[in-house]
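Hypothesis: this fold can be encoded by more than one sequence.
Test: take the structure tokens below, design a sequence, compare later.
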């Protein structure tokens, strides 16, 4: 889905990440909560909404679970491995709870929604089970749990978008932020559990999205990523003005906040991304030239079984269309190895589609059957595990080559880079991203610019995951 740049095998979800202790934002709180987020960017964004709700109800965040009164895991169900990670983490918290009996433990997110009350039977230490549309009820559920009762709310909503809640930006770099624009998914891809855990699609009020983005810009943020399971289905009826707002129009509204605010979005379904969106991207310099376009398979037969509603040829024509409108567009994808009935030829079709599309980056998975999905009901999970892993390995090797070749093509070019902070390896270097979402490392010594500034960087070298360069001094943009 929506994660940082680099070639990654994602046979598991993002590991749990906890909020920094600064979360309390200087206010005094009676109690402390600790939250870990797993999986996609949507979950990380939801945790910021949860933090806001808890702050308003007397709970400050802590990055140290040992001092917490409430421990929350915001979970992911997309693959079996993602759920196993959370179960292991719960095992650790079981021990913490033994030495601190008043500690409340809550499971939020997709696992809560998928397993509901069953989670309480299977994991006796859990006190709260709260689905992704029920976070507003957290304060009353916590009160209930404090009396010793188990508390569950997994109602899915057709309306909830948390539009009026200002997320608390806890471990933010102060430069880039996620802004949720829609929730849920109506697509029913055969392998995917998301439509069951996140419910029906609903879009957030366009005015509240623009307000949130403008507020972030005023606080010094310079990049927003508009988030949704399927952003191109965004659709808002502005009843007062008797007008609808499409995703292309929303992109434009956000781009118009300020030319210094970069706009990204994720995730797009290939069937829904329109020419209108592509032309809007081309029209505004501050809408980044980068599209994450999950293909899932390169075989038309498999795509049909997956219920993706497009063929290989149709997808490739979409790639051609994107590059004809935005010639320097960065492209990435999601791809699954070993879906039900996948043959060697189907696998070769995935490899050749990747080579044609020249992806800069991919999230690569082997198929993991999820209970209740269309595929689990209709098809046998019949590709042996070793075959899935071998095919995934071939996909990863190809992507590494494609990423390296893509980076090598950038050597000698100059890119406008938004500085996000110190490079991981050295405080002597800055790290930032190009419009195409590639990470660039360059020496601080060559520029007076700082975090949140744009600089022009000439690319001199690269690895598979990173561009390495030097600033072009005279063209610093402040
Ligand atoms: N098995 C493997 N990968 C999956 N994805 C979704 N469901 C499954 C599954 N059951 C992948 C898809 C999707 C990404 C978020 O996770 O590639 O785009
Ligand atoms: Fe899952 Fe398909 Fe919806 Fe993406 S578009 S969340 S893969 S059902």
């Amino acid at each position: 889905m929506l994660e940082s740049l680099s070639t990654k095998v994602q046979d598991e979800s993002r590991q749990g990440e906890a909020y920094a202790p600064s979360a309390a934002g200087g206010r005094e709180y009676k109690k402390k909560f600790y939250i870990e987020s797993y999986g996609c960017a949507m979950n990380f964004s939801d945790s910021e909404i949860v933090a806001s709700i808890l702050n308003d109800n007397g709970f400050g965040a802590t990055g140290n679970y040992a001092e917490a009164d409430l421990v929350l895991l915001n979970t992911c169900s997309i693959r079996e491995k993602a759920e196993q990670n959370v179960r292991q983490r719960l095992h650790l918290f079981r021990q913490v709870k033994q030495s601190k009996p008043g500690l409340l433990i809550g499971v939020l997110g997709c696992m809560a929604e998928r397993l509901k009350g069953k989670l309480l039977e299977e994991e006796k230490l859990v006190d709260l089970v709260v689905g992704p549309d029920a976070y507003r009820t957290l304060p009353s559920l916590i009160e209930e749990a404090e009396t010793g009762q188990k508390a569950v709310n997994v109602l899915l909503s057709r309306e909830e978008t948390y539009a009026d809640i200002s997320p608390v930006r806890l471990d933010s770099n102060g430069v880039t932020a996620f802004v949720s624009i829609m929730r849920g998914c109506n697509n029913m891809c055969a392998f995917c559990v998301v439509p069951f855990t996140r419910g029906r699609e609903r879009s957030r009020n366009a005015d509240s999205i623009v307000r949130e983005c403008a507020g972030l810009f005023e606080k010094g943020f310079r990049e927003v990523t508009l988030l949704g399971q399927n952003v191109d289905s965004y659709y808002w009826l502005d009843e007062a003005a008797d007008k609808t707002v499409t995703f292309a129009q929303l992109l434009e509204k956000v781009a118009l906040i300020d030319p210094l605010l970069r706009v990204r979005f994720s995730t797009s379904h290939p069937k829904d991304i329109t020419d209108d969106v592509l032309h809007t991207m081309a029209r505004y310099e501050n809408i980044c030239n980068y599209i994450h376009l999950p293909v899932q398979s390169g075989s038309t037969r498999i795509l049909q079984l997956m219920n993706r509603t497009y063929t290989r040829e149709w997808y490739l024509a979409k790639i051609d269309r994107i590059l004809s409108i935005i010639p320097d567009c960065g492209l990435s994808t999601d791809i699954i190895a070993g879906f039900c009935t996948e043959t060697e030829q189907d696998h070769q079709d995935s490899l050749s589609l990747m080579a044609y599309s020249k992806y800069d980056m991919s999230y690569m998975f082997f198929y993991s059957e999820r209970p209740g999905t269309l595929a689990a009901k209709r098809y046998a999970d019949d590709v042996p595990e070793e075959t899935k892993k071998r095919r995934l390995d071939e996909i990863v090797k190809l992507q590494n080559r494609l990423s390296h070749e893509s980076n090598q093509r950038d050597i000698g070019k100059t890119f406008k880079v938004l500085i996000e902070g110190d490079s991981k390896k050295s405080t002597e270097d800055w790290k930032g991203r190009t419009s195409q979402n590639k990470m660039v490392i360059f020496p601080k010594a060559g520029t007076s610019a700082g975090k949140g500034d744009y600089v022009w960087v000439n690319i001199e070298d690269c690895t598979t995951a990173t561009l390495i360069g030097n600033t072009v001094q005279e063209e610093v943009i402040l």
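The pocket of 5'-deoxyadenosine (ligand 1) is lined by residues 1, 78-79, 191-192, 294, 296, 334, 336, 365, 367-368, 370 (CB under 6 Å). The two ends are 32 Å apart (CA to CA).
Hypothesis status: open.
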